[in-house]
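> run fold Secreted protein
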Amino acid sequence: MSTGLIILLIVIAAVVVLGAATLILRGRGRHGGPSLKRRFGPEYERTVALHDGDTQAAERELTERVERHGDLHERPLDGAERQRYADRWTAVQERFVDSPREAVAEADRLLGEVAATRGYPDGGRYDEQLAALSVHHADHVDGYRQLHRVARTGPDGGASGAGGGTEEMRSALLGARALFDDLTSADSGRHRAPGGTGRDTAHTGSHSHARSHAPWALHRSRPKES
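> ok
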Protein backbone atom coordinates (compact mmCIF):
# COMPACT_ATOMS: atom_id res chain seq x y z
CA MET A 1 0.00 0.00 0.00
CA SER A 2 1.40 3.34 -1.05
CA THR A 3 2.20 6.08 1.44
CA GLY A 4 -0.30 8.39 -0.25
CA LEU A 5 -3.11 5.86 0.17
CA ILE A 6 -2.27 5.35 3.85
CA ILE A 7 -2.37 9.10 4.43
CA LEU A 8 -5.72 9.31 2.61
CA LEU A 9 -7.20 6.54 4.79
CA ILE A 10 -5.95 8.27 7.94
CA VAL A 11 -7.54 11.55 6.84
CA ILE A 12 -10.85 9.82 6.09
CA ALA A 13 -10.82 8.09 9.49
CA ALA A 14 -10.10 11.39 11.23
CA VAL A 15 -13.00 13.08 9.42
CA VAL A 16 -15.37 10.26 10.42
CA VAL A 17 -14.31 10.45 14.08
CA LEU A 18 -14.63 14.24 14.09
CA GLY A 19 -18.08 14.06 12.53
CA ALA A 20 -19.26 11.51 15.11
CA ALA A 21 -17.94 13.65 17.94
CA THR A 22 -19.74 16.69 16.55
CA LEU A 23 -23.04 14.81 16.38
CA ILE A 24 -22.64 13.63 19.96
CA LEU A 25 -21.95 17.13 21.20
CA ARG A 26 -24.91 18.52 19.30
CA GLY A 27 -27.12 15.85 20.79
CA ARG A 28 -25.98 16.76 24.27
CA GLY A 29 -26.59 20.41 23.51
CA ARG A 30 -30.18 19.68 22.47
CA HIS A 31 -31.10 17.44 25.35
CA GLY A 32 -28.87 18.23 28.30
CA GLY A 33 -28.17 20.90 30.85
CA PRO A 34 -29.59 24.36 30.12
CA SER A 35 -31.81 23.08 27.30
CA LEU A 36 -33.56 20.64 29.59
CA LYS A 37 -33.89 23.28 32.30
CA ARG A 38 -35.52 25.67 29.85
CA ARG A 39 -37.82 23.03 28.49
CA PHE A 40 -38.99 21.47 31.74
CA GLY A 41 -38.77 24.38 34.17
CA PRO A 42 -40.15 23.28 37.57
CA GLU A 43 -40.42 19.71 36.34
CA TYR A 44 -36.63 19.68 35.92
CA GLU A 45 -36.07 20.64 39.55
CA ARG A 46 -38.65 18.14 40.73
CA THR A 47 -36.97 15.32 38.80
CA VAL A 48 -33.55 16.23 40.18
CA ALA A 49 -35.02 16.13 43.70
CA LEU A 50 -36.56 12.71 43.03
CA HIS A 51 -33.09 11.49 42.05
CA ASP A 52 -31.67 12.84 45.34
CA GLY A 53 -29.81 15.64 43.59
CA ASP A 54 -28.24 13.39 40.92
CA THR A 55 -28.45 15.78 37.98
CA GLN A 56 -27.11 13.29 35.44
CA ALA A 57 -29.72 10.66 36.37
CA ALA A 58 -32.49 13.26 36.23
CA GLU A 59 -31.35 14.50 32.84
CA ARG A 60 -31.23 10.95 31.50
CA GLU A 61 -34.84 10.47 32.55
CA LEU A 62 -35.96 13.77 31.04
CA THR A 63 -34.04 13.11 27.84
CA GLU A 64 -35.78 9.75 27.52
CA ARG A 65 -39.13 11.50 27.87
CA VAL A 66 -38.24 13.90 25.05
CA GLU A 67 -37.08 11.03 22.85
CA ARG A 68 -40.32 9.11 23.44
CA HIS A 69 -42.80 11.96 23.24
CA GLY A 70 -41.11 15.01 21.73
CA ASP A 71 -42.55 14.35 18.27
CA LEU A 72 -46.13 14.02 19.53
CA HIS A 73 -48.52 16.31 17.67
CA GLU A 74 -51.59 17.38 19.59
CA ARG A 75 -54.89 16.88 17.81
CA PRO A 76 -56.77 20.19 17.88
CA LEU A 77 -60.21 20.34 19.45
CA ASP A 78 -63.08 21.84 17.51
CA GLY A 79 -65.27 24.50 19.05
CA ALA A 80 -68.00 22.06 20.09
CA GLU A 81 -65.48 19.82 21.86
CA ARG A 82 -63.92 22.74 23.72
CA GLN A 83 -67.32 23.95 24.88
CA ARG A 84 -68.39 20.47 25.95
CA TYR A 85 -65.26 20.02 28.05
CA ALA A 86 -65.61 23.53 29.48
CA ASP A 87 -69.18 22.76 30.54
CA ARG A 88 -68.08 19.54 32.19
CA TRP A 89 -65.34 21.35 34.14
CA THR A 90 -67.89 23.93 35.30
CA ALA A 91 -70.12 21.10 36.50
CA VAL A 92 -67.17 19.62 38.41
CA GLN A 93 -66.54 22.94 40.15
CA GLU A 94 -70.19 23.29 41.12
CA ARG A 95 -70.28 19.74 42.42
CA PHE A 96 -67.27 20.46 44.62
CA VAL A 97 -69.42 22.62 46.91
CA ASP A 98 -71.39 19.60 48.17
CA SER A 99 -69.24 16.62 47.15
CA PRO A 100 -65.54 17.56 47.01
CA ARG A 101 -64.20 14.00 46.83
CA GLU A 102 -66.47 13.05 43.94
CA ALA A 103 -65.67 16.32 42.17
CA VAL A 104 -61.91 15.76 42.45
CA ALA A 105 -62.26 12.19 41.14
CA GLU A 106 -64.33 13.42 38.20
CA ALA A 107 -61.82 16.19 37.43
CA ASP A 108 -59.04 13.59 37.38
CA ARG A 109 -61.00 11.44 34.90
CA LEU A 110 -61.86 14.48 32.81
CA LEU A 111 -58.25 15.62 32.49
CA GLY A 112 -57.18 12.13 31.47
CA GLU A 113 -59.94 12.06 28.86
CA VAL A 114 -59.06 15.47 27.42
CA ALA A 115 -55.38 14.52 27.20
CA ALA A 116 -56.25 11.28 25.38
CA THR A 117 -58.49 13.17 22.97
CA ARG A 118 -55.61 15.55 22.20
CA GLY A 119 -53.44 12.56 21.24
CA TYR A 120 -51.62 11.68 24.47
CA PRO A 121 -51.53 8.12 25.85
CA ASP A 122 -54.91 7.28 27.36
CA GLY A 123 -55.68 7.63 31.04
CA GLY A 124 -55.32 3.89 31.59
CA ARG A 125 -51.58 4.45 31.12
CA TYR A 126 -51.37 7.33 33.57
CA ASP A 127 -47.58 7.28 34.08
CA GLU A 128 -46.94 7.33 30.33
CA GLN A 129 -49.60 10.01 29.83
CA LEU A 130 -48.03 12.16 32.53
CA ALA A 131 -44.56 11.73 31.03
CA ALA A 132 -45.83 12.84 27.62
CA LEU A 133 -47.68 15.80 29.08
CA SER A 134 -44.54 16.86 30.94
CA VAL A 135 -42.71 17.22 27.63
CA HIS A 136 -45.29 19.59 26.14
CA HIS A 137 -46.93 21.17 29.21
CA ALA A 138 -44.13 21.11 31.75
CA ASP A 139 -45.24 24.28 33.55
CA HIS A 140 -48.60 22.80 34.56
CA VAL A 141 -48.24 19.03 34.62
CA ASP A 142 -47.57 18.90 38.36
CA GLY A 143 -51.10 20.19 38.97
CA TYR A 144 -52.44 17.08 37.27
CA ARG A 145 -50.05 14.93 39.30
CA GLN A 146 -51.34 16.38 42.56
CA LEU A 147 -54.96 16.06 41.49
CA HIS A 148 -54.45 12.41 40.55
CA ARG A 149 -52.79 11.67 43.87
CA VAL A 150 -55.59 13.26 45.88
CA ALA A 151 -58.25 11.55 43.75
CA ARG A 152 -56.68 8.14 44.37
CA THR A 153 -55.58 8.37 48.00
CA GLY A 154 -57.51 11.29 49.45
CA PRO A 155 -55.90 14.39 50.96
CA ASP A 156 -52.67 13.55 52.80
CA GLY A 157 -53.31 9.89 52.07
CA GLY A 158 -56.62 10.10 53.93
CA ALA A 159 -55.03 11.30 57.17
CA SER A 160 -56.15 14.94 57.17
CA GLY A 161 -58.91 16.39 59.26
CA ALA A 162 -62.06 17.56 57.50
CA GLY A 163 -61.01 21.20 57.09
CA GLY A 164 -57.45 20.51 55.98
CA GLY A 165 -58.58 17.74 53.67
CA THR A 166 -61.10 19.96 51.94
CA GLU A 167 -58.54 22.70 51.45
CA GLU A 168 -56.06 20.26 49.94
CA MET A 169 -58.69 18.98 47.52
CA ARG A 170 -59.62 22.57 46.64
CA SER A 171 -55.95 23.39 46.01
CA ALA A 172 -55.50 20.26 43.86
CA LEU A 173 -58.52 21.13 41.73
CA LEU A 174 -57.42 24.72 41.26
CA GLY A 175 -53.85 23.61 40.45
CA ALA A 176 -55.05 21.19 37.78
CA ARG A 177 -57.12 23.89 36.13
CA ALA A 178 -54.07 25.40 34.39
CA LEU A 179 -53.38 22.18 32.50
CA PHE A 180 -57.05 21.85 31.62
CA ASP A 181 -56.94 25.36 30.15
CA ASP A 182 -53.81 24.49 28.18
CA LEU A 183 -55.38 21.35 26.74
CA THR A 184 -58.69 22.99 25.81
CA SER A 185 -57.24 26.24 24.52
CA ALA A 186 -58.20 27.30 21.02
CA ASP A 187 -54.54 28.23 20.50
CA SER A 188 -52.94 24.86 19.77
CA GLY A 189 -49.45 26.42 19.89
CA ARG A 190 -49.55 27.48 23.54
CA HIS A 191 -47.72 24.47 24.89
CA ARG A 192 -43.94 24.42 25.20
CA ALA A 193 -42.57 23.74 21.74
CA PRO A 194 -40.27 20.73 21.16
CA GLY A 195 -36.64 21.63 21.50
CA GLY A 196 -37.08 24.00 24.41
CA THR A 197 -37.92 27.04 22.30
CA GLY A 198 -40.16 28.44 24.99
CA ARG A 199 -43.82 29.22 25.38
CA ASP A 200 -46.01 31.36 23.21
CA THR A 201 -47.15 34.16 25.50
CA ALA A 202 -49.63 35.76 23.12
CA HIS A 203 -52.61 33.83 24.45
CA THR A 204 -54.92 36.27 26.18
CA GLY A 205 -57.63 35.69 23.63
CA SER A 206 -57.31 31.94 23.60
CA HIS A 207 -58.81 31.47 27.06
CA SER A 208 -62.09 33.27 26.55
CA HIS A 209 -63.99 29.98 26.82
CA ALA A 210 -62.16 29.11 30.02
CA ARG A 211 -62.49 32.47 31.73
CA SER A 212 -66.25 32.30 31.27
CA HIS A 213 -66.38 29.49 33.84
CA ALA A 214 -64.01 30.83 36.52
CA PRO A 215 -63.84 28.69 39.66
CA TRP A 216 -66.40 30.73 41.60
CA ALA A 217 -67.93 27.58 43.05
CA LEU A 218 -64.71 26.68 44.82
CA HIS A 219 -64.77 29.91 46.83
CA ARG A 220 -68.49 30.43 47.35
CA SER A 221 -68.55 28.65 50.71
CA ARG A 222 -66.67 26.03 52.61
CA PRO A 223 -67.92 22.71 51.25
CA LYS A 224 -68.78 19.81 53.43
CA GLU A 225 -66.94 16.49 53.17
CA SER A 226 -68.77 13.84 51.21
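The two ends are 87 Å apart (CA to CA).
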